DNA sequence: GAGCACTGC
């Protein structure tokens, strides 16, 4: 009976929503096991039957509520509906490519609904940008006679409108990527549409790798990749030759005109650039009315071009700049209706993110700033580069949307032909730390085995791991650490996440969350070209002289102080007056709240007391260890790995130029800049950078007062000296060398303050031999230092290199042999032959006087030789000549020298000289 | 003395 019931229930599982199936199947299998073991299953069976009933009803209700889409037949995708339907039904993956106006973005989800997709799970449709996702959701909802939040859902950061009745979920690709953390098999979905894949953003490339790994586990899944006609074969190859369906666009022809710059070298061309733009605009003016879109590389070019055009053109031509950092209202200007001619000067925003309406003509400089990460210098670069052929065509296409257009390229056709076909995908030009961190947290296995559409260079992967290691997110074996796991949960850059985690220990979480959020959003400060000074003046109200970071905190506090008592309208006005973007302040606020929620979920506690600035900066520094720099010249700073930097001119520190700084980011544009800065104390670095700093030691030497071998320690981080000249006990660092120094300096040289009798004994013995040497004017009587060293070396055990350990050992050793450290006199004498001390008497007897004699062997010194001390009273009784006889031991040498100094004529009578000198010694000293 | 464009647990 139970077995029959189990058999009846099994097929019902596949009629439940996807998400519920794994759990229901598990329960069913459990019951079958029990049934086979003849255990009671009745209650379990009843419960399962009930749950299956509810679940299948839910799916049936979804199926019944599935919208039946209507189509506006004019779109190319709609015309090929049947073919697309068949392809989706027949293949797990298809690639649909077509230009703008093909309808692929808006109509493909509807075709999926027609196929009954979206019933078992959702149809997930990803967009690279939030604005695009939002407007697409509104548009599709409208076409389905529904509202966003019902049949069509929409999800992005801070915005979730997905309901029970949702079939189609439109979201940013970042959201889908984030969802893999909680739902690795993405069971919410039965279909994916990955839109704008040709842009090859980091998110898309990562997603396509993830989905490739997922497909074998989800055979029911359908995947549609849509792309402009840019390298669709690559996607096809990535998904085992999935079919590519090309759909025509609905655009007008664009005439291409090449107007290369004059001049042979770059300098000439730079001069010509402005003139070429004016010429192109004039040429287009002769073609007839219509707005012009000019593509330039950046804000500076736009400013220069705007000035040129304003001087050049009749008043009824309107010149509008357009770039992402422009305030929202200034951006909106391009959407305002207008009379006369309009020339929009734009960066790449107009290539993908923003569609400027009503453009008839395009002027393309062929240049753009492209972000390129240098794994060598660890700096993000923004060089101006020639854009690819695909990007140039994309730009040209911007004037064929409403009517036939003309695109003037300010370069030659040969130049165009010589360019790379496609823009390098982001994954090949970016710092990979964040991607690697996500992959590790998701347990996706080795990075080099991951099925990327295009695998990143191994050097970039290594560099990414290195940064994660610096942050303590992975260990030396590149395994994710507990801290790495926490970092992966924070939707911010790993460096910024590290600051947040460090803020817990520094008791400044509240403040650091605000700063971390600020660093994650666009700078809310606005600086319009024409009111730059006024804006700077207002922004100075929030500045903190030693830290751009605390400046953010100040702005935050000021804004929230206002927000507490002002209406939203008045708050907007306050923002406007202070050149602050209200929209970006809101975004900042949202990010801060989200981070606060996440860290409190992780068990971190906010500080109640206001934090100390130093504590805040130490927490920030924990994430920015690779971004410290030291002033090395008037305007030059040296960062990690000897990187030369300048301070970014917008920083509060640019005039102050402190000795040490940390930077939120290093970017190379015209020069290499450190941007968003604070003064740091180099001594903060070492405790935060354990395991990263390198130590070197110089001048190790015995210090009598410390009773230790002491050295000067130098601590460097990436080559920057964060500690210099620190006195440290060198013993534990290099015990072998320290013992050697201890023996040489403390024992042999006698620099040890010891109560041990051996030292007095040995010292006296050495003094005695040295005295003998001085008398005999030779240096070879005392055994060499090496032999004295060998004496101690043979007795002192290994590991003893300071006073405390020595005394401890000595006491024990002397208990067995009290004289174990005593030199023997014979052992100190290197020469067997004894010196006859009578030859070098300690005093001279003279006319009843006993005059003490000192000896010194130090040629060149005033008292070299022998010195006789005479009492003052006896001085006049002595004749200087008597002293020329010296003492017997010195006389022979003196005689030899005297003979040698004779003129040759006489000298020859005394050959051989030493013999004569020796024979003369018998003569008597005159009294 | 001045930077392309996006995304998020």
Commentary on this structure:
This protein is α/β, with parallel strands linked by helices and 927 residues long. The chain folds into eight domains: 2-65, no CATH class; 76-247, 3-Layer(aba) Sandwich (Rossmann fold); 254-423, P-loop containing nucleotide triphosphate hydrolases (Rossmann fold); 425-489; 490-619, no CATH class; 624-688; 736-828, no CATH class; 841-920, no CATH class. The chain contains 36 helices and 29 strands. Helix 13 (328-332) links the parallel strand 11 and strand 12 (341-346). The longest helix is centred in the first third of the chain and has 24 residues, at 42-65. The termini are far apart. The model has no long low-confidence stretch (mean pLDDT 91). The structure holds one DNA strand of 9 nucleotides.
């Amino acid at each position: 009976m139970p077995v029959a019931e189990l058999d009846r229930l099994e097929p019902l599982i596949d009629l439940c929503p996807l998400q519920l199936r794994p759990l229901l199947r598990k329960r069913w299998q459990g019951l079958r096991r029990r049934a086979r073991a003849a255990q009671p299953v009745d209650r379990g069976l009843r419960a399962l039957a009930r749950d299956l009933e509810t679940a299948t009803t839910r799916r049936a209700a979804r199926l019944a509520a599935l919208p039946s889409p209507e189509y506006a037949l004019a779109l190319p995708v709609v015309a090929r509906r049947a073919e697309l339907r068949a392809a989706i039904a027949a293949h797990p993956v298809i690639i649909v490519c077509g230009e703008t106006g093909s309808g692929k973005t808006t109509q493909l989800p509807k075709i999926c609904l027609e196929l009954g997709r979206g019933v078992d799970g959702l149809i997930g449709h990803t967009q690279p940008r939030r604005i695009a996702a939002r407007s697409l959701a509104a548009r599709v909802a409208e076409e389905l006679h529904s509202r966003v939040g019902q049949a069509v859902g929409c999800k992005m950061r801070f915005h979730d409108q997905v309901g029970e009745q949702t079939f189609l979920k439109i979201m940013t690709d970042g959201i889908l990527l984030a969802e893999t953390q909680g739902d690795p098999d993405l069971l919410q979905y039965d279909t994916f549409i990955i839109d704008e894949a040709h842009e090859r953003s980091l998110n898309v490339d990562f997603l396509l790798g993830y989905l490739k790994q997922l497909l074998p586990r989800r055979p029911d899944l359908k995947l549609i990749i849509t792309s402009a006609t840019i390298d669709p074969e690559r996607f096809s190859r990535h998904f085992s030759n999935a079919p590519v369906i090309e759909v025509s666009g609905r655009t007008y022809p664009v005439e291409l005109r090449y107007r290369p710059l004059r001049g042979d070298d770059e300098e000439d061309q730079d001069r010509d650039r402005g003139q070429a733009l004016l010429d192109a605009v004039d040429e287009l003016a002769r073609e007839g009315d219509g707005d012009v879109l000019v593509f330039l590389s950046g804000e500076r070019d736009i400013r220069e071009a705007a000035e040129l055009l304003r001087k050049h053109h009749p008043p009824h031509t309107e010149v509008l700049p357009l770039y992402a950092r422009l305030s929202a209202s200034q951006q909106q200007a391009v959407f305002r209706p207008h009379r006369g001619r309009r020339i929009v000067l734009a960066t790449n925003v107009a290539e993908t993110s923003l569609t400027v309406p009503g453009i008839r003509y395009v002027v393309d400089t062929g240049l753009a700033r492209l972000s390129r990460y240098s794994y060598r210098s660890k700096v993000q670069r923004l060089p101006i580069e020639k854009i690819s052929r695909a990007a140039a065509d994309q730009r040209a296409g911007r004037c064929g949307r409403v009517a036939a257009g003309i695109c003037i390229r300010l370069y030659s056709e040969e130049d165009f032909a010589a360019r790379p076909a496609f823009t390098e995908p982001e994954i090949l030009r970016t710092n990979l730390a964040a991607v690697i961190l996500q992959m590790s947290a998701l347990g996706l296995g080795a990075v080099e085995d991951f099925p990327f559409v295009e695998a990143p260079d191994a050097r970039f992967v290594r560099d990414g791991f290195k940064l994660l290691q610096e942050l303590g997110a992975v260990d030396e074996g590149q395994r994710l650490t507990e801290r790495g796991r926490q970092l992966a949960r924070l939707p911010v850059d790993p460096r910024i996440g590290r600051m947040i985690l460090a803020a817990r220990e520094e008791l400044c979480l509240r403040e650091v969350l605000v700063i971390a959020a600020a660093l994650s959003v666009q700078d809310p400060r606005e600086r319009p070209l024409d009111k730059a000074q006024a804006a700077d003046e207002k922004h100075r109200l929030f500045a903190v002289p030693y830290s751009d970071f605390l400046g953010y905190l100040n702005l935050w506090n000021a804004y929230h102080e206002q927000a507490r008592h002002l209406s939203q309208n008045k708050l907007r006005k306050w923002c406007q007056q202070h050149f602050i973007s209200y929209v970006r302040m809101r975004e900042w606020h949202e990010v801060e709240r989200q981070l606060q929620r996440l860290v409190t979920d992780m068990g971190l506690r906010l500080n109640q007391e206001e934090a100390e600035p130093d504590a805040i900066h130490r927490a920030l520094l924990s994430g920015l260890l690779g971004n410290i720099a030291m002033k090395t010249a008037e305007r030059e700073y040296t960062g990690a790995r000897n990187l030369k930097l300048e301070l970014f001119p917008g920083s509060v520190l640019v005039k102050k130029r402190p000795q040490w700084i940390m930077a939120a980011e290093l970017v190379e544009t015209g020069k290499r800049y450190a941007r968003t800065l604070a003064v740091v104390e180099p001594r903060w670095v070492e405790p935060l950078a354990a395991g990263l700093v390198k130590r070197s030691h110089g001048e190790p030497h015995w210090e009598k007062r410390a009773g230790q071998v002491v050295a000067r320690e130098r601590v460097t981080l990436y080559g920057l000296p964060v500690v210099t000249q620190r006195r440290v006990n060198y013993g534990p660092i290099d015990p072998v060398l320290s013992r050697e120094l201890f023996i040489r300096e403390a024992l042999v040289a006698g620099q040890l303050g010891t109560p041990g009798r051996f030292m007095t004994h040995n010292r006296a013995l050495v003094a005695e031999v040295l005295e003998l040497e001085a008398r005999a004017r030779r240096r070879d009587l005392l055994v060499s230092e090496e032999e004295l060293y060998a004496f101690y070396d043979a007795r002192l055990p290994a590991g003893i290199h300071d006073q405390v350990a020595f005394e401890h050992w000595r006491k024990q050793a002397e208990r067995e042999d009290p004289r174990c450290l005593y030199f023997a006199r014979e052992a100190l004498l290197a020469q067997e032959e004894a010196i006859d001390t009578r030859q070098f008497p300690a005093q001279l007897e003279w006319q009843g006087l006993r005059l003490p004699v000192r000896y010194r062997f130090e040629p060149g010194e005033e008292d070299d030789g022998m010195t006789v001390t005479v009492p003052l009273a006896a001085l006049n009784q002595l004749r200087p000549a008597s002293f020329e006889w010296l003492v017997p031991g010195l006389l022979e040498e003196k005689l030899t020298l005297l003979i040698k100094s004779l003129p040759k004529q006489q000298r020859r009578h005394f050959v051989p000289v030493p013999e004569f000198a020796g024979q003369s010694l018998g003569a008597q000293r005159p009294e």
